[in-house]
Each structure stands twice: as structure tokens, then as C-alpha cells.
Specification:
Order of helices and strands of chain A: EEEHEEHEHHHEHEHEE
Oligomer: heterodimer
Shape of chain B: elongated
Number of strands of chain B: 12
Structural class of chain B: alpha+beta
Number of domains of chain A: 1
Chain lengths: ~230, ~400
Amino acid sequence: MGSKAPIVEIRNLYKSYHRGNQILPVLNDITLDIDEGEFLALMGPSGSGKTTLLNLIAGIDKADSGTIKVSGVEITSLSETELALWRATNVGFIFQFYNLIPVLTAFENVELPLLLTSLSRKERREHAEMALRVVNLYDRMEHYPGQLSGGQQQRVAIARAVVPDPTILVADEPTGDLDRVSAMEILDLMERLVHGFGKTIIMVTHDPRAAKMAHIIKHLDKGVLNVYPQNHL
Amino acid sequence: MRIPLSYSFRNLWTRRLTTMLTTSGMALVVFVFASILMLAEGLQKTLVETGSYDNVVVIRKSSVSEVQSGVDRLQASIIETQPEVALGANSQLLLAKELVVLISLPKRGSDKPSNVVIRGISESSLMMRPQVKLVEGRMPRQGSSEIIAGNSIAKRFKGGGVGEVLRFGMRDWTVVGIFDAGNTGFSSEIWGDADQLMQAFRRPVYSSVLLKLRNSSEFQGFKERIESDPRLTLEAKRETRYYKDQSEIMAKFLRIMGISLTIIFSLGAIIGAMITMYAAVAHRTGEIGTLRAIGFQRTSILSAFLIESLLLGFSGGCIGLFFASFLQLFTISTMNFQTFSELAFNFSLTFEIIYKALLFSLIMGFVGGALPAVRASRMNIVESLRAS
């Protein structure tokens, strides 16, 4: 793994927000490499810029300056339309509040990202069913999100994230809304995705248990990145 | 690729109450729109069907209808001698010199007076109007004070039934028969012997001359000769054209009134749809952010919300049309502005009206949903996700 180029390369990244005339710096000269198959946890106090960094890596926000390359593609230079196309096949999102579409069934939610691919209806069905099998919810595929527990909904969200076989998975507080047991199930599943399927996960978390699962923990404080070894916790 | 249609449809179903209220507003507007078009169509259909293509009506130049027209006996005789006039079974000329007079009769029930057309007919009149059929009683005897009434008159006017007596032209007239002229203007007329009626009303001239052409293609030549003859100050029209002209002002008035009314009403319905769609966008900010993050383009979000508001409009259109279709069961009677006479007709629903009403409902949905859909599509992904 060491000889391979990092899957995510971030160089001199700056990001600030504007509130009226005020400029609030959020990320300050971030440089970071993430290798393929790595499970990285981003930690830090609220307002430290973790989610902003995650959003920038996922291509849903624009940096002020600096570059981000994912799998060799410099996403900071892509247009909005190109970014949307890129996200469809390269990024899987796992949100704190699952963000499932309530009017679609578990199956339809999982199938959603595949609608942006060239797969046929039959292929989409096969892929979505397989993803639901991976998260152990094949028998619940016709259920609506409202008919599932929080943990089950997050598993559906994970299935939706992995179904297009993305380059990276970004998770923003994936256990933040779950009880202890469900949170552990989700973390086990994420670990399985890394070890069993070779996925690269970048996770923002406040939860030390979640962070423990990660290979590397990066700590953000006032927009500056510090690296801690795993035994720091 | 587009967000699946089921997303838009199920969102409407999830917000059933709001959807139903918005749809009802639109349905009401479409109902009014369709019913006024049906009214105008019914009126026009009734009058157009009254005429027959092979028949020609000759009236005084510039007179809009038979009521204002006058054809003196000499002029009528000149027309009678034209070679284009067809002959009937027993070599009788298919030509009728007719008198049209308006009288006021009280309506059954309300006693409210209304204008009714009295038509003085001659022997050939019925032969040229095969749609007119005697359904009760008998035909009036020539030279007598007997009349027959159209079934609309018999139903709606006092003294219009068989055996009843009507008083006009300083005489009593006995109704000896009822005729059915189908869905035509004749059903709203009273017919009697032309010569008797001319005497009673002190009319020295006929109102019109109706004739059948022996060959329909000879119309243009006949028309040109009649209209250029210096002895005749008359004009000739095909009977279908004549009745169409009679319905035009009234139908146009109904359509303009209807469209103006519905445009005003539709503003309310559009604002209703807009409020519903803005609420939907505000309620689903997180979903919009998620869909955009997954990779759906702005145009996909725009079309998903537009489809939703078009579905609102379309369902409103279908419901409005459904209720409007029941109006076909009703017969309405009103004064035709051009003839000043009472005319009974039905609401008529045509494919054109269905298409126009549905298009109108879709336009309402589109206008109501456009701004909210644009707003949804322009949302910032990060801010939308933060709102979820």
C-alpha cells in the first residue's frame, strides 16, 4: 500500500465563510494524504472545520484555495455539473441523520444513486439487492424508512452509499443519532467495508468508540490539522 | 437521469390534505373554465345543427337575422323562379316563404315573460327540415288558427302543450301538435301557417325565403346572381352559415366572459399551488441536499418539483372536468342576443374542451410550481444538508 499514490491528496487548502462583512476562516493550510483502504477519523471540537473538510473532500463545497485530488482527479477545478457527475460514481455519503428519502422504500433509496449510472433496470435491482444483503436488510427492502429503527435506517444509508462502488465513503457522525448497540453495529459494518471490501472511509466523529475503529485519527482545531497515533485516545 | 416519478407522486400522497385542498382550488377553476366553454359549445352546436348545408336562406341585405329581415312578395316570386331551386317528390318547389315574429310568453312555474320565435311556415318547410318530427298531435290545417310547438316550448312555456291555447296577434291559437327538432334551435319555436300569421300580425312582407338547391355546388352562382340583381336588396347564405353567424356573438361573449373569469380565479389557484410548493420545498430542504450530494443535477431537482406541481394541476383538471361532465345532463335556456329569442340548449363537452381544460390546469400547475422548483434547484448543498 505504501508504494501506491494516496487516493486523496489535499494540498494547502483554505476555506473561510463570509458573514456579512466578516470573514471567518475555517480551514487553514490543510495538507493531507489518505491512502486507499484507509479508515480515517477526523476529530475535533465543534466549529473546528471537520465537516467543512469532509464536504470539500466529498465535492459538495468549494475551497477558497488549494487543491484536492481524489484518485488522480483534481476535484477543486471541476465545474458544478462535472462535480455532480463525479460524486455520483466516486463518493458514498453516510449522514448522522441517515438522510433517507421518506417516501421511497429501502430498496428504492438504495437504488437511487444507481439511477445516475448507465446500469439497466435489472442490473440496478441486482446491485441494490446485493447492497441490502451486505447490510443484512434484504428482507426489509420494501419497508419505508419510517418503518425501520434508527440503526436499520443507517444500514440502509450505508447500503445506498456503497451501492455505486464509490472511490471513497464519507461519513459525518454516523453514530451520532444511534444508541450504543446500534452504533456498534454500524461501526462493525463500516469496519467490514474497510477490511472485507477494501473501502476507503473518511469519518467525522465526536465518539471515541467510533474513532477507535479508525486506522488513523486526524485532529482539527481552529482549522489546523494535527495527527495523532491511534493509541493517543 | 431523472429522479423517479414515484418520488413526486408519493410526496403528494404523503401530504394528502394539502394536496387535496390545492387540487380542489384548481378543480374549481377548471370546472368554471370547462363549463363556460361547454355552454358556448352547446349554444353553437345547437344553432349550427339547426341548419342544413343544402338549404339556402335569403334575407334582406345587412339584416343579421330573420327577425330584422323583410322580403316582399315580388322579391319572393323572383327567387321562386330561379333555376337552382330543387323540386320535391311531386314536382313541388322546395322553397318556403316564411315569416318570423317574436312574441312574449310567460314561462311555466315562474310566469316570467320571455321572447319566443313564431315561424310562419309553408308546405315545403317541413320537407326541407327532415330533423323536425311531429311527436304528438297533428299538423295545423292550412288557413286555420292552429299552431304546433317545439318540445322545448311545450315544456317551458305556459299554453305550449297540446290542446292549450295561446293568445297573440289579437287571436287565440290552439296548439294541435308538438314537434321534436332534436338538439336544434327549432325546438324553441312555434310554427303556424305563414299566411294566417301575416294577417294576424299585419305583416305585408315575409321575413325570409328558405330554399333547397337542386345541386349544392350551384350555391355560389345563385348567391352572386341574387345579390347583384338590382330588383333584389337581398343576400343568400347557406342555412348552416346563417345559424353559425347567429351563434357567434353570443358564443364569443360567453367565451370571453368565461376566460376572463377563469383567469381571475386561476390567479387564486396559482397562488395556492405556489404556497403548497414553497411549503414542500421548505419541508424537504434536507432531501434536496441529499439528492444533490448523491449526484443529481440541479435540473433533476427542478423537474422533480415541477412534475409534482404539474401533477397537482393535472389532478385538479381531471376532477374539475369530471364534475363539469355532469353538466351535460342539464338543459339551459337563455336569450340569444342576435335573435332576441329564447333558446334552449345543452352543455356540450368535446375533446377540444377536455384538451383545453387539461392544458389550462397544467399551465396553472406549471406557473404555480415554477418559482418554488427554481428555488429548490438553486439551493446550496451544504446549507440544505445542515437544515436536515
